[in-house]
Specification:
The chain is mainly α and 313 residues long. Helices cover 68% and strands 0% of the residues. It has 12 helices and no strands. Helix 3 packs across helix 12 and helix 10 packs antiparallel against helix 12. The protein starts with a helix and ends in a 5-residue tail after the last helix.
């Protein structure tokens, strides 16, 4: 009878001697990496991103979408003429307004004013409100008390009413005047969000370690606190961007925002309101364009909020 122990021994030794392939360690992802992975799978993010990219392209290169002038009118082309919906991309596609101007051309060129106002106001309030919120939340004490009371004063001013009062002081209301008026009153929410985030982050161990190692205040604020307190600010700013576009259109509709010859959806909505019974298309198309734009940025903000907030996963 063969000795099975002798034949099994070499096999066992070979198995022991065989090198074990090292398993590749999975790279840990940061909050931003996880957020980006979630965003790429979110249909709201994909749809809103496509719309926003299209709007940005229209605002930068309006000549690619129409050859008609948004300000040149021809009274022969009466606004009672029905739009030719089959003539896609032509000046008469959406009809003409009361001055014989192409509604489609004004939709295309009006995108620029709305996008500029929304992006510039959001950028200004994010920087201004973020800095004030960081200072108030990090230093606390009398600094926090003073900045918080200033924020409360501005927060108590109704946003649209305050913007109307500010704009009344200007005889010529250009895009940059409207941007300044909205930014002057719109930074309070960002300040409160940033302050709360900084108060939470500054209690973390890595912040105390940086202080113990002798890191300066500026380095601690911008290297350790800001990257970890920025997520809620980005969410609020993204959602608010659509609100600023809507506020600009509202002010222009009331005659206190942009005015001719500036091409704006709010101006066209105001002019179309007087013709709604006989020519509803003059009011309808800029209203639809405004709603789509605001909805796109709100959808983007909601997608970003769901990706950056662990509680929403």
């Amino acid at each position: 009878m063969p000795d099975m122990t002798k034949t099994a021994a070499p096999a066992e030794e070979a198995a022991v001697a065989a090198p074990v392939a090292p398993q590749k360690a999975e790279k840990a992802r940061s909050l931003w990496g996880d957020a980006w992975a979630d965003l790429r799978r979110n249909p709201y993010f994909l749809v809103s991103s496509v719309l926003i990219v299209l709007l940005l392209t229209i605002s930068i290169f309006p000549g690619l979408f129409t050859s008609a002038s948004p300000t040149k009118g021809d009274l022969v082309k009466h606004f009672l003429t029905k739009p030719e919906l089959g003539s896609i991309g032509s000046p008469e596609w959406f009809g003409y307004d009361g001055q014989g101007r192409s509604v489609y051309a004004r939709l295309i060129y009006g995108t620029r004013a709305s996008i500029i106002v929304g992006i510039c106001v959001t950028a200004i309030v994010t920087v201004l409100g973020g800095i004030m919120g960081m200072i108030a939340g990090y230093f606390g004490g009398i600094v926090d008390a003073i900045l918080s009371r200033i924020t409360d004063i501005f927060f108590g001013i109704p946003f649209l009413l305050g913007a109307m009062v500010v704009l009344q002081a200007f005889t010529e209301r250009t895009v940059w005047v409207v941007v300044g008026a909205l930014a002057f009153l719109g930074w309070t929410q960002i300040t409160r969000v940033m302050r709360g985030a900084v108060i939470t982050v500054k209690q973390a161990d890595y912040v105390h370690a940086a202080k113990a190692l002798g890191a300066g205040t500026v380095r601690i604020l911008f290297r350790h606190i800001l990257p970890n307190a920025l997520a809620p600010v980005i969410v609020v700013a993204t959602i608010a961007l659509g609100g600023y576009i809507s506020a600009e259109a509202t002010l222009s509709y009331l005659g206190l925002g942009l005015a001719s010859p500036t091409v704006s959806w709010g101006v066209d909505i105001s002019a179309g309101a007087a013709q709604i019974r006989v020519a509803p298309h003059v009011l309808l198309w800029p209203s639809i364009m405004l709603s789509i734009t605001v909805l796109a940025f709100i959808m983007l903000g909601e997608a970003v909020r769901n990706a950056l907030d662990p509680k929403m996963r």
